[in-house]
Design brief:
The complex is a heterotrimer of chains A (542), B (325) and C (297). Chain A has 15 helices and 21 strands. With 542 residues, chain A is an alpha+beta fold. The longest helix of chain A is centred in the C-terminal third of the chain and has 18 residues. The two termini of chain A are 30 Å apart. The longest helix of chain B has 39 residues. Chain B is flat and about 85 Å long. Chain C contains 11 helices and no strands. Chain C is elongated, with a radius of gyration of 23 Å. The chains are: A alpha+beta (542), B mainly alpha (325), C mainly alpha (297). Chains in contact: A-B, A-C, B-C.
Chain lengths: 542, 325, 297
């Protein structure tokens, strides 16, 4: 790395040896959950043996979407938003294909003091935004401040609550020093999530459809955007990874209708699609010229019960509902077998995942007696859902059917994406939602705290301060073993009393034309299609 | 003659005024129906990004602080001048922007369907009448009757089954036109939706054409032409058909009107990006401004063709013809 | 027919009940026979089908979209439920709603038409203009506006479809009644002091039944199509209900791998509408025959 511009081939991952060298030099890397991988150099994101070719317009059909689509480098709600954010924005560091953090992003280094409350971020030099302006410390400061701005409530800022906006200091053109409110061992995880994009100073995409303010450092620049229909992105000729990206243009098309999406792939109208319905897996694989990409994921489609709304404010009702779920049947019927069963706990890729807690099974008798004890037998509830991602509607319907055995009537209300994610979102007592793969503490920040942007269950109960104090403790804990213990306690609380019914984890099923090269099977997927070909830059037409 | 002319002009004028009045009531009903909803449109638009300040500002912009009557007159006024309001789901984007290209797509689809179905069904009607009571006529009559009975989505799905997915794989099962592209650049995608629409309206036109043609073929007028020694073909196409078409014009216009509503289901079946599928999406999203705008628009097209049908009937009525000859 | 003081010669309506005459004449035609058989078959499937269903319509019996097998003659649907069972269960709602809506439309339309024809004053104009306004909407648009406001409720669908059926029935009724209103026996009844409702429903109505029957079958065909269409769009019955229109939409993504889930309801709806349409056509021809020729049975 002579001129600061990394060569397109190197991945910039750190080996264990590198880490220790740094530690010796005075900076310590905190071991939180999901730390830098062991075999950082070996085979991660290995580029296809064939030489990538330049050119072409890559068209991708994404599931869902409506006129509520938007583009914001630091925020998403639906799958089309995810597909679009990766075109133009990048994060300081990234999660690799084994779901381990890697310094393969905008940051050259991120170090912290022994206590873990002072962090120093240094970005690579020579990276430009789409308008030619060079990425500098000022942009990083602005980005962080915007992420944590409470008025905006951005998804990307949920896990960055420990950052003190008044104590961010610019050390030099490329270096920023943060003095946190408290020690935080999860900062790297938070900064590595795809929604923590770095934006230029003054960034503020206002009403949907205004392309101009929407610039980032990513491989493609936004050319046009029609919410609910499609967006067009053109190659960024000054992209910092030399050689990439390969496509001239990327077109992202909304396809709320599953049939239309699959047919578009089969008919050659698009080159790739997300969310192949399980019924069509055989069709797509059997069709000449298309294939299905299966990626195990920690993506989950929970049924969410509000712990502060009747009837679920009674923990017995929540426990009963969790016992109603016949998880293998739900995976079989709702995901057509493409997934694995869940145990009401998220974060299965996390090293600290509490795999020792016994796997819950369906127990209708116990469920009935719990409901009776709570005075709620013969309960009738509405369950709001939408086709935001595969498994949501299906899971809701299968669960409703299973609930009958316990004398519970679940009325499934399928809403359109726009209606579901409207002003009633996060307010229903019983609903579904979808989440991607995330490490435990990051997920807690995103959905299990009172300050989380997407807390469907309104967990924890206002009376229970235990979970919150454990969370704060975990953030501060440096010792990896000790932190694991705390995380285990937190998971036990959620396992016993939580509001989620996590019945399974989906295998990501995406479809692509065989013209598209560079995709890897078996990647531990966060986003579809190998994180959309890592922002459409590690794939090409061959 | 002049008195007749004035009478006709008067009639036309009256029908037009009546049509406009009807449309006015239509808009009233649509507006009343959609405003019955108690929810707060401002909050629906801003969704989770709502703050007290932005809510206040948007309410001002949407006239929500005024009485319903004021809202209606303001809405109607803007509507007439081309401002169709702001979409709830598209974060306040003007409806005209959201629907612009979709309207073009639907118009094209309807146009093609009309251009194909009218001559086709006239032709079928004439053929059936020529060989009336013969086996061809019976077969045709029964098939047309059957087709007329089927709901459009049944026809559409059957076509998809036959020509796109199961039996033959000639045509695409969905009709995706990328926004910004003109529909005529994607003719293969247009085939099935067009055929569905043609099959939906042709039976009615063909049947009336047949009935009318049968009457004309048995009329003195045609007998006269035959006696004069004109070749049968000329008798048929130059004398009989033009007279038979006259009563069919009303049915033709009514069926064109029907197309305005027919595109709703057809566009949904084929995922065709027109105003029909936009209306279905808007209903799902409870995007009331779009529902209002499209309902009035489609009803407007409907009323227009109905008025046209009435005027056409009068203009080509036999009384008028004979008196002019 | 009512007895009238035998003072003046009266043009009495045709001998024998007109409805029976009409039905008999219609039945003589092949198309009516076919139509009735089709409708009978499908009504049968809809009504007694559920008794023959091997599984409950909401049970999970196989993997989603499992192919047809000996256990599942029509395979499984999008969630792994038995297509045959759901098909057998799926006709009731469509039939029930369509019949209800058509009946509502008939009742309303006949009342409006009779009143309009009889009063022939400003009320007539007002009523008919109101009918025109309703006719100005394509029915599906009116239904969609209603659903957009209130939501997909079944009673709403019945009311809206009934409302859109009303105007044409009113027009036909009014047209036929206008003729009758002039006739002597009606005027005689008026002179006798019979109450208006009695005249309307006792004298006039029985004589407009022929055109009304024809219109009724046309309206029924249309209602079935409209309600099935609304279910198909997702605005009718909601999942997990077994309904033919809904099934078509739920299963159409699997047309390439497992077509039965969508194809069976398509065939059923097609045959049903063709059947009612054939009956309507038969009645229509019979009615024309009666108008043209004699009135014997």
């Amino acid at each position: 790395m002579t001129d600061g511009r990394p060569d397109g081939g190197s991945q910039g991952h750190l080996t264990r040896a590198d880490l220790f060298r740094r530690a010796a030099a005075g900076g310590v890397v905190l071991a939180g959950s999901g730390v830098l991988g062991e075999s950082a150099m070996a085979g991660i994101d290995a580029i296809d043996a064939a030489t990538p070719k330049r050119g072409g317009t890559f068209r991708i059909g994404v599931s869902g979407g409506s006129t509520k689509d938007f583009i914001d480098g630091q925020n998403i709600v639906t799958v089309p938003d995810q597909a679009r954010i990766v075109t133009g924005w990048e994060t300081l560091l990234v999660f690799d294909s084994k779901f381990k953090l890697a310094f393969n992003g905008l940051a050259e280094s991120i170090e912290h003091n022994k206590q873990g409350n002072v962090w120093t971020i240094r970005v690579r030099s020579g990276i430009e935004f789409h308008n030619g302006k060079t990425l500098s410390a000022d942009d990083v400061i602005y980005s962080l401040k915007r992420l944590i701005n409470p008025k905006l409530g951005l998804f990307g800022g949920a896990a960055l609550k420990s950052i003190d906006p008044n104590r961010i200091k610019k050390l030099d053109k490329r270096t920023v020093r943060l003095t946190l409110k408290q020690p935080d061992g999860t900062l790297l995880d938070a900064l590595g999530q795809y929604i923590a994009g770095i934006v230029p100073v003054g960034y503020s995409p206002d009403a949907v459809g205004k392309a101009n303010p929407n610039i980032g450092t990513g491989p493609y620049k936004l050319k046009s955007f029609t919410p609910g229909q499609q967006s067009v992105h053109v190659r960024n000729p000054n992209y910092w990874r030399s050689g990439q990206p390969y496509f001239d243009q990327v077109v992202i098309i909304d396809f709320p209708d599953d049939t239309a999406r699959v047919n578009a792939l089969l008919g050659g109208q698009v080159d790739a699609i997300t969310d192949v319905p399980p019924a069509q897996v055989a069709v797509v694989n059997g069709h000449g010229g298309t294939k299905v990409l299966e990626s195990p994921s920690a993506a989950w489609r929970p049924i969410c019960m509000r712990v502060d709304a009747a009837p679920f404010d009674d923990v017995r009702v929540r426990q009963a509902f969790r016992l109603i779920a016949n998880r293998p049947q739900m995976v079989q019927q709702a995901l057509a077998g493409h997934g694995k069963i869940g145990n009401d706990l998220y974060g299965i890729f996390d090293e600290a995942f509490a795999s020792d807690l016994p796997q819950r099974k369906q127990d209708i008798d116990k469920a009935k007696s719990l409901l009776k004890a709570a005075g709620k037998d013969g309960l009738t509830v509405d369950l709001q859902t939408t086709s935001g991602a595969l498994g949501m509607n299906e899971g809701a319907q299968v669960f409703a059917q299973q609930a009958k055995a316990a004398g519970v009537t679940v009325n499934v209300k399928i809403l359109d994406s726009g209606a579901f994610y409207g002003d009633q979102y996060l307010k229903w007592p019983l609903s579904t939602d979808f989440w991607g793969s995330r490490n435990y503490l990051s997920q807690v920040a995103a959905g299990s705290l009172p300050t989380s942007p997407y807390n469907e269950t309104h967990w924890p109960d206002a009376k229970d301060q235990n979970f919150l104090s454990l969370y704060n403790q975990a953030l501060r804990t440096v010792d990896r073993v000790k932190q694991r213990e705390i995380l285990h306690e937190m998971q036990k609380l959620e396992y016993d009393n939580g509001g989620y019914i996590i019945w399974g984890f989906t295998t990501l099923l995406d479809g692509y034309s065989t013209k598209v090269k560079g995709l890897k099977t078996g990647d531990k997927g966060v986003l579809s299609l190998n994180a959309f070909g890592h922002g459409y830059r590690t794939i090409w037409f061959g | 003659m002049t008195k007749l002319r004035r009478g006709i002009t008067g009639f036309i004028l009256r029908r037009v005024v009546l049509g406009l009045l009807t449309l006015f009531f239509v808009s009233l009903i649509v507006f009343a129906a959609t405003q019955a909803l108690p929810s707060d449109p401002a909050r629906a638009i801003l969704g989770r990004t709502a703050t007290p300040d932005s809510l206040k500002a948007l309410r001002e912009q949407l006239d929500l602080n005024h009485s319903v009557v004021y809202q209606y007159t303001h809405w109607l006024g803007s509507f007439v001048t081309g401002d169709l309001g702001h979409s709830l789901a598209a974060r306040g984007e003007p409806v005209t922007a959201v629907l612009g290209s979709r309207f073009k797509n639907s118009a094209f689809l309807v146009l093609i369907a009309a251009v194909i179905s009218v001559p086709l069904s006239i032709f079928l009607g004439v053929i059936a009448a020529r060989r009336r009571d013969g086996p061809l006529d019976h077969a045709l009559s029964l098939s047309l009757l059957g087709l007329a009975a089927l709901p459009e989505f049944v026809v559409g799905i059957s076509l998809v089954l036959l020509f796109a997915t199961r039996v033959f794989h000639w045509l695409p099962a969905v009709s995706l036109i990328p926004p910004g592209d003109a529909p005529w650049q994607h003719l293969k995608e247009i085939v099935l939706p067009t055929v569905t629409l043609v099959l939906a309206v042709s039976p009615y036109i063909a049947r009336i054409m047949r009935a009318s043609m049968v009457e004309v073929l048995e009329s003195d007028y045609v007998e006269m032409a035959r006696l004069k020694g004109l070749p049968e073909r000329e008798v048929l196409w130059r004398h009989a058909v033009p007279n038979a078409v006259a009563p069919a014009i009303q049915v033709i216009a009514l069926n064109l009107a029907y197309l305005a509503g027919g595109i709703i289901v057809v566009e949904f079946v084929f995922a065709y990006p027109g105003i029909g599928s936009a209306l279905v999406d808007a209903v799902n999203n409870r995007d009331l401004p779009i529902v209002q705008a499209l309902a009035v628009l489609i009803a407007g097209v409907y009323v227009f063709f109905n008025v046209l049908a009435d005027i056409a009937t009068i203009l080509v009525s036999p009384r008028l013809r004979t008196s002019l000859r | 027919m009512t007895a009238v003081a035998p003072t003046a010669p009266v043009t009495a309506p045709t001998v024998g009940r007109p409805l029976t005459i009409l039905a008999r004449r219609a039945w003589r035609q092949m198309r009516t026979k076919i139509g009735v058989s089709l409708v009978a078959l499908l009504v049968g499937v809809a009504l007694i089908g559920p008794f023959f269903a091997p599984y409950s319509p909401s049970e999970f019996v196989a993997a989603p979209y499992a192919h047809a097998s000996s256990a599942l003659p029509l395979g499984a649907d999008n969630l792994g439920r038995d297509v045959l069972s759901r098909f057998l269960w799926g006709g009731r709602s469509l039939l029930g709603l369509s019949i209800l809506a058509t009946l509502l439309g008939l009742v309303l339309g006949v009342s409006v038409g009779l009143v309009a024809a009889y009063t022939r004053s400003v009320l007539d104009d007002v009523l008919m203009r109101a009918m025109d306004v309703i006719l100005a909407f394509p029915s599906i648009v009116l239904a969609l506006v209603a659903v957009a406001t209130v939501g997909p409720k079944l009673w709403l669908i019945v009311i809206v479809v009934g409302l859109t059926t009303m105007p044409r029935v009113a027009r036909v009724t009014r047209g036929a009644a206008l003729e009758i209103v002039e006739r002597d026996f009606v005027q005689a009844a008026e002179v006798l002091g019979e109450s208006q409702p009695k005249i309307l429903f006792g004298e006039i109505l029985p004589n407009v039944t022929s055109p009304l029957m024809v219109e009724a079958s046309l309206r029924l065909t249309y209602s079935i199509g409209l309600i099935a269409g609304l279910s198909f769009l997702g605005f009718g019955l909601q999942p997990p209900a077994a309904d033919w229109g809904l099934m078509i939409n739920e299963n159409r993504q699997a047309l390439t791998v497992q077509p039965w889930g969508a194809t069976m309801p398509v065939i059923a709806i097609a045959l049903l509408t063709i059947g009612t349409s054939l009956i309507g056509d038969g009645l229509s021809r019979a009615a024309i025959g009666i108008d043209r020729g004699g009135g014997e049975g």
